[in-house]
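During the reporting period the student researcher (J.K.) took over the structure-prediction task from the postdoctoral fellow and processed the backlog of single-chain submissions. One of the processed entries is reproduced below for the supervisory committee.
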Amino acid sequence: MVEAPKFEYKYDLALWKSFSARLSVAILVIAAGVFLIAMLTYLYLSEESVKESSAVEARIQLHDAVMAMRIQTAESALRGDTLGMEDYVSILRTVKPYKHAFTLMTDRSGRLVYVGDSVLLMNQRDEVPTILRMMGSGEAGMQEVFKHADISLLIHEPIGESGYSAGLICSRKDILSGYLPLVLYGGIAFVVGLLVLFSCCAFAIHRLVKPLQQFTDAARSIAEGNLDTPLPEIHSEDELLQLRKSFEYMQTSLKQHIEDLKVTTAGKERLQSELVIAHDIQMGMIPTTFPQRDDLELFASMTPAKEVGGDLYDFIIDDDELFFIIGDVAGKGVPASLYMAVTRTLFRNLAGNYQSAANIVRQMNHAIASANDSYEFVTAFVGVLDLKTHHLTYCNAAHNAPVILTNDGTCRLLEAETNLPIGVEDHYHYEEQQIEFPEGSALLLYTDGLTEAVYKSNTGNRKLFGEDRVLHDVDKNRMASAPEIIDYLKQHVTIFADGTEQGDDLTLMFIRHGKTQDKGTSSSRRIIMKNEMAEVSRMRGFFFSVCREYGISDETAKMLNLAIEEWVANVINYAYPKGTRGHVEMTANVSPSRLLTVVIKDHGVPFDPTSYAEVDIDAELDERAIGGLGIHMVRGIMDSMSYERTANGYNVLTLTKALDNHD
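J.K. obtained the following C-alpha cells:
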C-alpha cells in the first residue's frame, strides 16, 4: 500500500518553497539592488553638492575677513597709520566656519607669519612647502591638502597691496558634517522601502499560493479516494484556471477508470476462478495413482507453466499390456488445455480397441484433423509394452525422443521416427517401431519443458537445459526409484533456471520394466541446492527425511546433521566467487550393513579438506592456527572423510558413518 505524503500548510512553507515565492523573492532582491544603487548614486551626488556648498560658505567667510583687512588697511593709510600684524591676525581669527578649521597667513615671500593650529601643521610638515607656495603666489584659490591624513581643503586669498595672503584649512569631516543626516535619512528610507516592498511581495505571494494549497488539499483528498472533493473556485484567466480544469478532467477520468476497473476486475476474478476450476479439472483428468506391480514401476508428473497447460500423460494397463502416452499441444492456456482433454479422451477410448501404437495414433489423428478448423496440433509419443513378452512397440508423432536405460548399463536417446504431429494431415500414415524391452530396462518420457528449460542471465544471455544434462542426470540416478528420478530432474531444472520464468509446461513420465532394488540394497537419495544460505534449511529437511526413512534416531540424526550442515555451508560461502551462481549436490545412502554414505559435490574452486592437519584444540588461542575448526568437527563426528577433484572440474567430498542397530 502506498503511504500518503504528509503535508504541513504553513505560511513560511508556501512563502519560501514555492516556485512563485522564489520568483517573487528574486524580483524583490533585484528591486532592492536597483533601489540601493539609486540611493548610493543620490548620496554620492549629494556629497558633492554638500561639499561644494560648505566650501562656498567657508570661502565667503574668508573673503569677508580679507575685505575687512583691506578696508582697515585703506583707512589706516588715510590716517597715515600702518596696520600691524596683530591687527590682521585679530581679524583673521574671526573666521571660524567649522569647529576644527584654522587660519594661517604668509607674507609676500611665502613665509609663514601666522598659523592658528601649529601642532596640526607641524604634523604634516611634508606638505607645508606646498601650502606656502600656493599662498605666496598672490592668487586666490582652493585646493585639497593633507591627503596622507584626513583630506582637508585649503582656501586662500591675497590681502590687497599688503603683500600678505590669508588662508583657511577645513577638515573633510567638518565640510561633510551636514552630509551625515542625509546619509542617515537615506539609510532609514532604504530599510523602510525594503520592508514595504517585502510586505507587498509577501501579500501577493500569499494570495497566489493560497489556491495552490487548496488544490493540494483537494489532490490529497482525491488520492484517498474521495473523488467528489470540491475544487477551489478560480475567477482569474490564468494558469490556475487551467490547473482547475485539469483537476476536473482528472476527477472525471478517475471515476470512469474506476468503473471500468471494477468491471475488468470482476471479469478477471471470474476468469481466474474459472481457470482455477479448469486447472483442478485438468489435473483431475491425469492419473495420480500409479500401478503397484512387481514387473512394472511407473511414475509421472505434470507442472503447467500457466494456470492450465497443454501437456498430457496417461496410461492404461490391460492384463499384461501397458498402453502409455505423453503429449504436448501447440500453444498455451485454455485452448491448449481443451485439446489436451480431447487428446487424452481419444487415447483412453482407442487404447483398448487398437493394439498397435501406430493404429492408436492414426485414429487419434483422423479424429482431430477431420475437424481441426483452428489448425491446432499435438506432438505425442504412444507406446505399448507387453510385460510378458518384454516387447515394446511405439509410434512417435514429432515428439521428443525418450531416454532409454538398458539393462546392460547404456543410457541414450531412443531411436524414434519423427512422423507428423497429430492433427496436421488427415490420413497420414504413421510408422511404428518396436524393440525388445527386457526387465531392468527403463524409459524417461518428457516434453520440451525439460530440454528447453531456459536460464537467462542479467546480461541477457540465454542457456538451455539440453539433452546432455537429461542423459547425465538419468544415467547417474539409474538405480533410484521412478519418483526419485523425476523429483531430481525437477529440482535440477529449478536450480538451473535460477528464477527465470519458464514458458513451457514440464511433464515427465518414467517407466521401468521391473523394480529397483528395495531399501535393503539401498538406493541413493539426492538433492540439488543453489549456492545460497537459504538452501541450508532445505538440505536439513532433506537429510532428516532420509534419516526417518532409514530408521536413524533423532539424536543421531541431529549429530550427523551438524557435520553435514557445516560442510554444505562452507561450500555455499566459499566454493564460488562472490556473485557467481552455482549449485551443490548432496547424495545420501544407507547400505544394508547400516553404513551411511554422504557425498557432497560442487564445481567451485578446488579445496581438499583432508590436506589440513589436525587442530590442536588444547593450544592457547594466540598459538592456534586460524581456521580448521569446521573440518575438525566433521572429522570428529564422521568415521571417514575423503576428497577427489574429478577430471571434469568437480569437488567430491565423501563422508561415511557406521550406524548401530539402535541408531
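The committee noted the following: The radius of gyration is 55 Å.
J.K. will present the remaining backlog at the next meeting.
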